Amino acid sequence: MGGAVSAADLGRVQALHALCDALSAQVLDVALNEQAQPDVRYVVVLPDLSGTRLEDVQARLELTEFEVGVLALALSTELFPERMLAACATALQMDSPHAAFLTPSLTRRWLLEDDWAQAAAFTAGRPLLACGLIEFGVSVNASVLEALTPLRLSAGLLADLRGLLDVPPDLRGVLRALPPGGLLSDSQEAQRETLARHLRKEDRAALLFGMNVAGMQAVAAHLLGSGAHRLDLAVLASRSPEEQEAALRALRRDTRLRGTRLAVDAATPLPDAQPPEGLVDRVLDIAAGPVVILSADPLPLDSPRAVLSAELGAPTPAEQRERWAHALGVSGDPALLRQLGDQFHLNLDRIDALARDARASLSGNASHAARLERAWEAARGANRRLMGSLAQRIDVRATWEDLILPHTERLALEQIAAHVRHRSQVYEDLGMARPGRGRSITALFSGPSGTGKTLSAEVLARDLNLDLYRMDLSSTVSKYIGETEKNLKRIFDAADQGGCVLLFDEADSVFGKRGEVRDSNDRYANTQVNYLLQRLESFNGLALLTTNLESSMDVAFMRRLQFVINFRAPQAPERERLWRGAFPRSLDTSEVDFARLTQADVSGGNIRSVVMNAVFMSVARGVPVSQALVEEALHLEYRKLGRLVLSY
Question: Do 169-311 and 400-566 fold alike per CATH?
Fold first, then answer.
């Protein structure tokens, strides 16, 4: 068993070892005396517990003398098995001590004048079982449970009595130490103080909700102080009912005996799309001391505890700008500093770390502009590491000059860029009410393939100096219950820190018109849609969704969009610009009749494909690009599309 023994507990552990040494010798003497004089009743006298860890266990769990005696006998069996098993074998009239074991009946026989006194000690409502202090092995004969059921200390209590500091064995995987809280902004500190006042009273809990998981954990660590641990509710929910009950008993013990303070992580979707509130209520019922719950959303809890809820976001853009300015050593309010605070959504300690990286890569006399630009790239790089392989990053190169669209559609795209770039001025400086819980900007691009939807997304990302990540919603959705939410959570948690634009392809595969709920599959499909809608509304960045079938989109979803842009097939003037712009400028196109080509009713994507094929044919044949060569490539494109090749 791993873990170190604390210096403070070392003396208490040694005293407990000495107590069990004396107790095991006394038990063996009693067993031998009973064998020699079966008509005489001998009772074991429990040594003084003062100065031992068992003294703490008895006081904190309110154990009777008999119950703490049971624990002392069980611990003695672990520490001095030869004596204790020899005594058990003698008392049970077994030939070999190797087959012997401690039983509930033997603990009564050795510790009590009356074998059936303390009858409730081994019931589910008493601490021995309710707190997972002991475990029963397989009974040799169910009809004689008391006499022939092995009794032993739980692994968790044994670790505690030995003074080991790490997470007890029966809570590993479910419980882990909560890192110390990082820096809090003034707005986060104000929320922490309100919650701290609430938690000072008995039987109180706090619920922190929102998408800033790191910030919520930092506030929870400040609220709970030393001894704080994170309880992974998703891991607990994935276990069998029997394993869940065993873990809850261990939590009851650990929060009372070790003073463990719980931060219940309910932010991760549970397996099989289980609602988290039922399991959270169970934890609130069994845990001692203050409890902080971390969740993506408010939970409808049904607990006798008074629960105070608070939504925790990232520091405000103004607070982030102030921290960036301090950490980078820049002054004033240049445009890039404002954008740093607006486009990225970072906690203060994360800003400090990125600013250190940015300054370390520059000379000491670098200009303020250079520091800000390097900080921007450091923040983008950090987000790329978070996104990893969760989505496909598109190398954006297109500019506004490459975008050939009607005036109305282009103006709508420019409005999207303006919304992203000036959010903080409108929402914070001017006090305009925000839509939804986050500062999301969501747009739907609809229209046939090849009409410029993805290209427009590239133009927006480059114009805003942000990364573009593409996800195919039809492949993100999983047939396995709960997996879709997990996939989406990983993506949005990473993207929420800023620095990127999310592009969701085939939105109609998820947001198609929904029919009535006829079975659990329909109900689960609606759950997936609701989760995605919730994350889109609380997202702090720009989310773009594309569809070829706007008519199939759910009306309720369409109402939530801030922008809807319909990309139609280009008209003749636009097609001529597309044809001319698709050829490299270095290529001689004097033999190409662009006026004639504009009569071909094809999209921009098809035009780019035709030009690509024509250029390859030109190079392969060693001939210049000509009208005939382009028309040959155009005919190939028509056949690929399954369309008749018509003269024009």
Answer: yes
